[in-house]
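Good morning C.,

I know you're traveling, so I'll keep this short. The sequence:
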Amino acid sequence: MQTFQLNRRTDAHLLSDYIKGCEKSFELLIHRHKSKIYNFIFSKVLDRDIAEDIFQETFIKVINTLKNGVYNEEGKFLSWVMRISHNLIIDHFRKSNRMPKFEASDDYDVFQFLTDESPNAENILIKNQVVNDLQNLITELPEDQREVLSMRLYREMSFKEIADITGVSINTALGRMRYAIINLRKMVEENQILLIS
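The tokens, ready to paste straight into the viewer:
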């Protein structure tokens, strides 16, 4: 099948073609989603080498799952790959005994429910799930909002630094953060995610 024709096929069709032996289909799938997946990983680990390693490991897992015939086609391919990469990021932080911080500033306290001072095993599991759910929602934000949110929460950058890096005014950066928080809150309600008080 010509590359042009393959390019017009859905992820599900490309996956099906790959499982039937068309390697080119999988190359196109990777090419189609590479930047989104890599940027997601990099936004969490903030290290290009580590991000590259996790990216490679993600696709090794994807290939092994597909080759072993245990891929469940319910849901979208990209969401499935994002979940795999997210789990590998968590594994990376566990191995390095360095879980990422999820606190925000006083102005944007979406993650304030994560600051329970008396963690027990159950609370930790619940909080990990909440963080996981929120991170999945963050990937659904428009790219400009996601970028500002990521820089602010995960890299602890000031709005001036964010504005300089993204080439916008401080007011625009603040506005994007505000819309990101509003959209996140809406998605939290729509997805009925229980935030721990």
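Safe travels,
E.
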